[in-house]
Amino acid sequence: MKKVLLLGVAMLALAACAAEPATLTVMTHDSFVASEDVIAQFEQEHNVKVNFVLSGDTGGALNRAILSKDAPVADVLYGVDNTFLSRALSEDIFEAYDSPLLAQIPDELKLDAENRALPVDYGDVCINYEKAYFAEHDLALPQTLEDLTQPEYAGLLAVENPATSSPGLAFLLATVAEYGAEDYLDYWQRLRDNGLVVVNDWNTAYYTNFSGSTGKGAQPMVVSYGTSPAVEVVYAGEELDESPTASLVGRNMCFRQIEFVGILKGTPRRALAEQFVDFMLDTTFQEDIPMNMFVFPANPQAVLPSEFTDYVQMPEQPAALAMAEIEANRDAWIEAWRQLMLGE
Q: What is the fold of 2-121+257-309?
């Protein structure tokens, strides 16, 4: 009888242990947001607790993953974009994974043929403008990057320092794509001569300098995101029929950023990591992306919210540069920009 009792206790203990959820650690940048009920759905379906480790901006999160690659502190890394992807791949931090959900993702978003980094979302860095300013001043909208150097737009544009700001870097890359590595600095000199305003970060540029966000800034144009006009509607204090801002989407005036997820090498939870990657690419998570992170889902089967279809302008020809070219020249381009624009 005693043996039977002990056996029963042992079986109950084993059952309790089996029911304990595993922990999956996902490292990401500080801008990551997902709905609690969506993450809870994954946790319940797979008996897992997902632990998100916010690790600074995109570059900071990648640096942490690289520095800890011999003893990984996470199982999955989300948020590396195409401006840093070449570095992530060259550092060999990811394990390849051919997710069945990749069949639903457009080929133009797949930048790694070995599927070590899988596309989750994308968005465009564009110049936003305040509609009322241009209407009140009977001023035509700039149609090209070169237009911004014309006298009628003197002092009207605020941009971020590419050394300290992700959208600032994206806009710098757009100018390199348009003018080439040999001539992009000449373009920036023309912008500077035309009263360009440079600030350190997006928050300052958008909420202090841009007149379209608070109505108090001095610049009616700012480097921001193509989805910012939708944000203006969503977070308006009153219901709006249209956004007070819009984006300039001429050829090479926007730079497309694509964000990726990858399974970190050495994870002891490979199966769970695969399931989480599949989850991120499937429609439940994909449809949660737009209103949380204000970027577009990579999976076109995801239904977009009306704010994205009504208030976001999509560039037909966003600027693009090869990953390897960005990786090889990014620091040099930034340093040359700093010397010209800031005298550093």
A: D-Maltodextrin-Binding Protein; domain 2 (3.40.190)
Helices marked H in the chain = 2-19, 36-46, 58-67, 85-90, 131-136, 166-179, 184-193, 202-204, 211-214, 228-234, 270-281, 283-286, 290-293, 306-311, 323-341
What are the tokens at 256? 């497309």
> Residues, the chain, total?
344
Question: Which tens digit of pLDDT belongs to each residue from 144-164?
Answer: 999 999 999 999 999 999 988
What is the pLDDT, as a whole number, of residue 343? 86
> 256: part of which helix (H) or strand (E)?
strand 255-264
Fold held by 123-255+312-341? D-Maltodextrin-Binding Protein; domain 2 (3.40.190)
Distance CA 314, CA 92 (A): 34
What's the Cα-to-Cα distance from 310 to each of 45, 222, 246, rounded to whole Å? Answer: 35, 21, 11
| Residue the block writes with tokens 């079986």 | 11
